[in-house]
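Researcher: For the record, we're logging two predictions in this thread. I'll number them. Prediction 1 follows.
Model: Prediction 1, sequence and structure:
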Amino acid sequence: MAAGLAIAVGVGKVPVALPELRDELELTLVQGGWVSSMLTTVAVFGAALVGMWVGRIGALRMALAGLAVCALASLAALLHPGWATLLMSRLFEGLGFVLVAVACPALITAAVAPAQQRFALGLWSTYMPAGASLAMVTAPLLLPHTGWRGLWVLSAVALAGAALVLWLQRAHFASLRPLAPAAAGTSFLAPVRLALGQPLPWLLALGFGVWAVQHFALIVWMPTYLQEQRGLGDGAVAVLTSVMLVACVPGNLIGGWLVQRELPRGLLLAGAQLLTGLGALGYSSDGLPDSLRYALCVGVSFVGGVIPAAVMASSTALACTPQQIGTLQGLYMQGAQLGQFVGTPLIAAVVASSGRWASALWVTASAALLGVALGLMAHRLETRLAGAAALPASP
């Protein structure tokens, strides 16, 4: 969890610092969007591939390597500040982010009792909103004195601290056999094919992705909107954005609890996507008062928190072996980051072309509608699989 919080600080530091970055480095709105989404590039194209190697390399080694890469990349951005340097450093931060985010669910799954694994992975899904909101709450204390560079240093310190925590616990992790690197003679592709040959994980990954389009639209662009359209100061922007983001945490926990209670995963996804889409209709409406629009943003974040918990916890049911958990988590991450990677610049382009922030509704509402359809498809497939499992074996 400490490692997850640390890498999420790297996600949360950009939205709050984006206005200052754009002013200092003379970045356009679209360039600012790429600075934010560049962290997801590795996840978009290689998260599933990275997940395949968890069983081969070892989850602890992978998590430690990811934390080190993230910390060094965050500090490297300070050497020669500029758009190209920021993009490159965010690319390497993305590599470390993927290594940690794919390896840690395997660590958590191995460390808890089997009956608690689904809830534990639901708890793990809180790492992103909790860590990102930590960066946003800290930002008003640092930005007036250190500028955006202070946030980048804070991120590196958090990552180094998390690496130290993991390193000090290595003796405990070493006793967990599922985390040991696979023997050289064991098959590499066979368990991967078994994990990815199931259609249900692909539906869940796509559903995760269309939720990410909606969620990161709020995370990335709310600070800029509040400053540029409503003229709020850094402190107010950070507090309002972090409260909206933290609202996702209880949603994550409720999602983990509902999955633990064996509610149909597909119906959870479909219901949550429907509610987030309806909420987007409200907070995008210029005719509503700002207080109600903000309350709808918080509500969308809360309800949407059910989705990552339900998706991430599914790996314990769909993985045939402990090593396949990393493969499935990589696939889910790739789906979520693809949504962020495409959605953030797309929303920026739509807003820039129309000149109205409300135009982002076309993107978020379309994503929610697709998410409802994917959730219903997943539920239908889950029902069919449950029926097949209940059939008596042939004599």
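Researcher: Logged. Prediction 2.
Model: Prediction 2, sequence and structure:
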Amino acid sequence: MTIEELYHTMAQEMGPQPWLRPGTLWAETPVEIMLGAILVQNTNWRNVEPSLINLKRETGFDPARLRQLSIEELLPLIQTSGFYHRKGAAILALADFLGTVDDDLDVLKRQDGASLRRDLLSITGIGNETADYILMYTLDYGTFMVDTYARRLFTWLGVTMPKTYPAFQKKVLPQFSLGLSDCQEFHALIDEFGKQVKSAADFDQSFLAGRKLTV
């Protein structure tokens, strides 16, 4: 099956998935989603939640108020997330980046997606996966995220993919013409499948057992 057939099969079998968006139970603002994407690197969401609570109390997720914090003031607020020196630098660099457009996300949304992605990757502490998450869930730019769950699923579906993130994504995107909401849904489906199907034995009992992907 093709990648788009995989998406539609998963959507039919698994149904609509919850995913982070402003104004939901998980996030109040786009900036909160951006900060969460940085803080969750190399940890789990349980460790991120106290950090976000602290940041909300001190800044209301306002980039201008974030820029007023010194690194010494910021670090204790995000300590529960681990790797907090690197993540603190990333948060302040992101706040500075948002300041270049007067914190107006609509200005960023009007920019070319590829150049916007390069701008995000130039920010300290933001790599491919975090940049794509920010693009897709806060800046309305659809793409394909290459995370651990996606790599594992493609392997189980009989595909040998490139090891690097850019090469993997580059191989997928030409066969991928889904709109923004479908891109978001596909990522959520892959991650939920990965949380439920944790081994090759589990996969052999799943609705995708015996299926092969063509990429």
